[in-house]
Design brief:
Blueprint (H helix, E strand, L loop, with lengths): L1 H31 L2 H7 L4 H24 L1 H4 L1 H18 L5 H18 L2 H12 L8 H30 L4 H4 L6 E3 L5 E3 L11 H21 L20 H18 L1 H31 L8 H22 L5 H21 L3 H29 L5 H23 L4 H18 L5
Antiparallel strand pairs: 1-2
Amino acid sequence: MSQDVDARAVRSLTRRYVVVYALATFGDWIQGAYLYAAYRGHGLAKREIGCVYVLGYAVSATIGTAVAAMGDGHGHKRLAEAYGWLYAASCGLLRSNAVVALLTSRVLGGVAYSLLFSSFESWVITEADEMRIDRKKLVGLFSVATFFNAASAVAAGLVGNLVVQLSESDKFTWIGMEIGKNRLTNLDGEHKEQSALTLSTNAYTPAFDVGAVSLILCAVCARILWPNRTVGRPNSDSLGPPGSPASTQSAASLMAAVKMIIRTEELFSLGVTNSLYEASLHLFVFVWTPVLEKRATDGDLIPHGLLFSAFMICKMVGSQAFNVFGSKITAETMLRFVLSGSALCFTVATLSTNYWLTVLAFCAFEFGLGVYWPTMSILRAQHVPNKLRATMTSVFRIPLNFLVVALLLCAGYASDRVLLGLCAGTMFTSAYSFQLDG
């Protein structure tokens, strides 16, 4: 009877979590496919687009980390709602031609991105504790969440493609209007770029409109389906007197989290592994398209959409593999297999220039990624204290974001093979740095 009650509780929690999480990830994925194209449609040059990307990661590492830390004292549900509204506003600002609006959009997106990877996981673990669910039984929940994350990516690609095609057709030009920037004519008859905050004439922005709708629904569903839980504040004396400003408490929480990570071997190992692995992942996202384009036979155009869908399917299969073996193999052992396998995948892609072998290596990496996400969630659930959960998860991402910034700045000066070798080296270092026993 007790097992039946626990099973129903896990299923209930899984449904409430996955509905909100899938809407959140759909709104993120649909932007990723068109963000570069949208900036280019606004007239930004490649170097300027790179600077805007770097701005987003820098904001995520700084302001985003400070905002995410507030969830431990004020409730993770509130920040999940804030994620939806901030990211929706970011999407809306991309309708504008003004540079200020585009930069503000990227700042809001950077803050929201930090919340996506801290507040949602922190809420579900805190809620599971409130419902007295054994954390070992969250294996299935995180597996399902990863599955729907990949499924939302596939859906975002299909929906985004459809919306952009409609916006480019003659019958639906009112959706996206024509590509190009509005111009003003001065008294001398010369044209100049419009600098006011106006609607864009960019055909890619309708995809962001769809993303904004999904993100608003995410915020609304979080408000309706999720209770707001707070777990108190650790070592309250060190966090300032009651009633002190939220910024002061957030800074104190960050310092407490950093000190705990440095002093605790398990947390330090987990943080280093997390940062190195995901930095390599972001570099892979940047490099896989040009690598496969150059290795395609006879200069054929590669099927970008089909390849992306194949990667996501492999990720979904990996999440199901975790669901099958997660209760039989320790999370520590599972992560070691993933880290070693990922390093091997990038080594193969670095040494061989064969197109199909490279595609196979990338698919194998995506399979491992489907295992990595729920495995890392389980390990954070086991080792990260509840009172600093969102703060510490965000602190783990500070070196990650700065690593990504450094790698992206170097990417324009290095060959694709060097970048793949850098992915392999980062993965080997990540595997070596993981020292947790299991």
